[in-house]
Amino acid sequence: MKGQESRTTWESSIIEGQLSKNLARYTLLLDKLSTLSQIDKLSEVIANDYAKQCKQLDVFVQQSQASLNTQSRKLELQRTNLTTTLAQFHGTVNTISSSNTRAKAIHDDIETVDQERALVNKTLQFLKDVRTLKNNISLAHSALETKDYLVAATAINEIRNLPDKDLIVSEFAKKVVPSSEIPEEPAILIKSWCKELTSLFQEQFMKATRTQDIKELTLMFKMFPMIGQDVLGLDLYSKYVCDIIADESRKIMSNSMENSTKFQGFFSQVLLHLFKIVSTIINDHSKVIAACYGEKHMVHVMEKVEKEADLQASLVLDIFMETRKVDRTIHDINEWNHLQKNEDRNTSSKQSNDETDEETEQTSIISINDLALLIIEFSQILQNWSMYSRFYSVKWYEFTNLHPHVLQPPSPITDGKFALKLEQDTVFYKFQVLVLNHLHRSFKNSISLEELPSLNDLITSDPIDDQDRNSYPVTSVLDDLILLVRKNLISVVNTGQFKLLSSFLNELVKFFQNQFLVKFMQNKFKLLQSKLTSSVSLKRYIPKREDQSTASRSVSPPANKFSPLSRFTFRGAAATALTNIQSNLQAVVAEDEDSILALHHYLIFLNTLYLNKVYVHRLLSMEILEDNSQRILKDNFPFNNDSEQLKVLILNSEKLVSDQTDKLSKWGIKYLFQNILQNRIRNLLGTIFVNSASSTSSGSNQNNVSRDYSASANQKNYITSIEDFEDLSQINSFNSKWNQLIIPYKNILHKEAYVELLAVIVNYIVGTLEQRIWSLEFNELGVTKLDRELSLFIGNICGLNYKLREKFLKLTQIVLLLGLDDDNFDLTTGDIKDDFDGTFDWAITSQERIKARNMKIDRRQ
Predict the structure, then answer these.
(1) Which DSSP symbol is given to 844?
(2) Can you tell which superkingdom this protein's organism belongs to (predicted)?
(3) Is the CB of residue 599 less than 8 Å from the CB of residue 676?
(4) 3-state DSSP call for residue 778?
(5) Is the pTM of this model over 0.90?
(6) Cα separation of 217 and 199, whole Å?
(7) 46-59 average pLDDT score
């Protein structure tokens, strides 16, 4: 059908196109008409075209009519089919409608049956419950007559747990349940029984607590929830438990109070025992409470128990503070601190300082040893509280069925009397005062007992392997200090109190900065620097013997009773002159020995600074943070995010101490170089990188060092011949003297201290040699020899330390440029060619490269 329509449309378009074409042709012919014959001929053409078009239109109309008739018949046929289908659809709809009506009727019948069945079941259950009620009332009545209270309570509990709470007051129950033996209504009867049993159980429970009849007590405790007295049972049980805690606490205190002053750690043991009792009660009795009352009721008991534990712990803490005279000790410590401030201001004479020290010790009511024992006991008390708080918090959330992402102390702990007492009585502050006083006083004593090791065994030209070394020479004060800090840090960490540790870390940083680095170390350096002379060298210290010093003091010119001229003789004058010379020599020797000893001590204190960083890192980071097996922070500080915050504080504290130590150590290294080593190294450098032929011709009667230095100052070229090309005596001599100078420092100083000193020396050497090499001129052999000598020079000074070798990069690139062929340079610019420039990361500029090439005198012009 669609094909027929498209064909008709196509034929129609063709006819219309033909007509348009003929009309255009006619219009064209009309424009060209000129004669009558042409008009006749045009009329004939039009007539023919008209006949032809009419014929085509007749055919088209006939075909279109036939096609339309065919399509009409098809549509009629389709309408007939649709009518049949519609009739069938209406029949199906009627069938479905009747089915729905029938299904609704069936559903209504089923629902009615279900309702009737539910009513029957409800009635049946009601009757069963009434029968259960009646049987249990009868059972409870019989049990009460025989005083079998467990059976009676069980029966009453079953009645109370009936599903229908209104059953006991229903009219049916009121008529059916009462009997001739038990005429009362069920609700009144049960209420009366519960009231009677409540008084009875309470009386029996109190009696069992007095007689310590645990079996009877447990039985009574189990039966309270059966008669609806859960809260009363828990209150009685909580009071019983609290009485146990109080009795045990009083028993411990009364039995051992007489010896408490002699037994250090007594109060911490009392508190630990108290918390153990509470923990045992919570652990063991929770099983009974969970079985009879439910776990949620355990929280109620824990609140009561915590109040009693707080009360007894506060009592122990008060007795501890009074017995150990903590407040008096704090007062004396504050006075001691005040005297220390006055001592720091008073620096007029050593005698006044000594007198102040004596007065300070006399005013101290407690010795350092007793103070250390007090701190340990104080720390254990706070540690026991911290451990108990953690246990209590875990159990609290276990019984409340809460699982917080981060453990937090519950309200009975945070709002408890003991926690508030710690804050109100400034217990944390007092503990910190004790710890800091012990640290300051012990450190002061360690300074007075300071010992310094001898360096004589380390002063040798033979290098000592680091692997063969067990320790570096340091002052005994550092070892004592680290032990003191570690001891007090352990006491603070063990308390498990975030405030204490965070505050102690801040005070510890101040202590290291002020007391150790400034007042002790910096003052030591300044005192030793005043004793050092620029001519002192590092050698073994041999103290002057006592007999020699006595002899030198006994040598003196004889007494002269007459005029100086009357007894004058040449022999007497010579003896007098000799005596004066000996005295002067001995004074110089004594001064030299003092400078040598001062240099030894200076190096020891440099080691002390660098070892201080190592020890502080080991004490804070390694022992506390990196020891994963002990999990110190997480175990001692479990609440909130305390462990993470403390980790940050510890790292920051270590960094602050390390930074301050670095500043002082670099200052000490710089002074050592500038005032002790710089002149010697300058003299050593005067003997290298000079023409050996010129330097040896400067005269043989002069001093070697001054001759070589003069030669290097006047030498302007580095012209080497074949004869002296292999002569490396200058650099070998330098290396030998360098090793004699520097190896003793390497043997003595800590590895980092030596590297720091060597870095300062290398910076000076590089600057000096760079100026010298820029002022020289070279031939081909001279460049090659300079390359060999510079390689030996750098290798001997830097060894395998490539960071130091990089400091010579500019010098090595200058020598590299001097050794390049002329073909590698651009004759126009004088600089190296572009294709060669990209192969190196140059440390020298283009102008310096041009200047370096001009230093070579045998290059191609």
Answers:
(1) S
(2) Eukaryota
(3) yes
(4) strand
(5) no
(6) 15
(7) 84
Distances (CA, A) of 202 to 88, 420, 452, 561, 617: 86, 35, 77, 117, 63
Contacts of 633 (CB under 8 A, 6+ apart): 624, 625, 642, 643, 646, 647
Q: Rounded to an integer, what distance in angstroms lies between the CA atom of residue 661 and that of residue 527?
A: 18
Angstrom distance (rounded) from CA 285 to CA 298: 9
Q: Which pair of structure tokens corresponds to residue 16? A: 């219309």
- Local structure of residue 823 (DSSP, 8 states): G
What backbone torsions phi and psi does residue 228 show, to the nearest 5 degrees? 80, 20
Count of alpha carbons within 13 angstroms of residue 269, beta-carbon side = 9
When the pLDDT of each residue in the chain is averaged and rounded to a whole number, the result is 81
Distance CA 356, CA 453 (A): 30
Helix axes 298-323, 368-399, angle to 10 degrees: 170
- Contact assessment for residue 589 and residue 559, using Cβ atoms and an 8 Å cutoff: no
Alpha carbons 351 and 361: distance in angstroms, whole number: 16
Distance CA 235, CA 114 (A): 49
Q: 316, 271 in Cβ contact below 8 A? A: yes
425 burial type by CB count under 10 A (0-12 exposed, 13-18 middle, 19+ buried)? middle
Max CA separation in the chain (angstroms): 188
- Return d(Cα 270, Cα 276) in angstroms, integer: 10
What's the rounded Cα separation, in Å, for the pair 559 and 73?
170
pLDDT in tens, 462-512: 888 765 566 899 999 999 999 999 999 999 999 999 999 999 999 999 999
Q: Return the DSSP state at 557.
A: P
Long-range contacts of 47-50 (CB under 8 A, 24+ apart): 49/22
Question: What one-character-per-residue DSSP string does 212-275 give?
Answer: T-HHHHHHHHHHTGGGT-HHHHHHHHHHHHHHHHHHHHHHHHHHHGGGTTTSTTHHHHHHHHHH
Instruction: Report helix, strand or coil for 344.
Output: helix
The answer to whether 478 and 608 are in contact (CB under 8 A) is yes
- Whether 385 and 392 have beta carbons less than 8 Å apart is answered as no
Residue 795 and residue 805 in contact, taking contact as beta carbons nearer than 8 Å: no
Which architecture characterizes domain 686-854 according to CATH? Up-down Bundle (1.20)
Among 235-239, 773-777, 855-859, the least confident range: 855-859
> CA-to-CA distance for 88 and 86, rounded, in angstroms?
5
Can you tell me the distance from the alpha carbon of 636 to that of 384, in angstroms, rounded to the nearest whole number?
11
Give pLDDT tens digits for 696-746: 433 333 344 333 433 444 456 778 888 888 888 889 999 999 999 999 999
Integer Cα distance of 195 and 171 in angstroms:
24
Q: Is the pLDDT of residue 364 over 60?
A: no
**Burial classification of residue 444, based on how many CB atoms lie within 10 Å of its CB (0-12 exposed, 13-18 middle, 19 or more buried):** middle
Contact 691, 716 (CB under 8 A): no
Token pair in block for residue 560: 């002269």
Q: Hey, what amino acid is at 116?
A: E
List the structure tokens of 61: 């109309």
Q: Virtual CA dihedral for 250, 256, 257, 262, nearest 10 degrees?
A: -150
Residue pLDDT, tens place only, 139-161:
888 888 888 888 888 888 888 77
The amino acid occupying position 532 is L
Cα separation, 58 vs 38, in Å, equals 30
On the CB side of 344, CA atoms within 13 Å amount to 12
Type of residue at 686 = G
Q: Which of 17-21, 726-730, 773-777 has the lowest mean pLDDT?
A: 17-21
CA dist 438 and 443 (Å) reads 8
Query: Which residue shows structure tokens 């030996």?
Result: 792
Q: Where are the domains of the chain?
A: 2-117, 446-551+572-664, 686-854
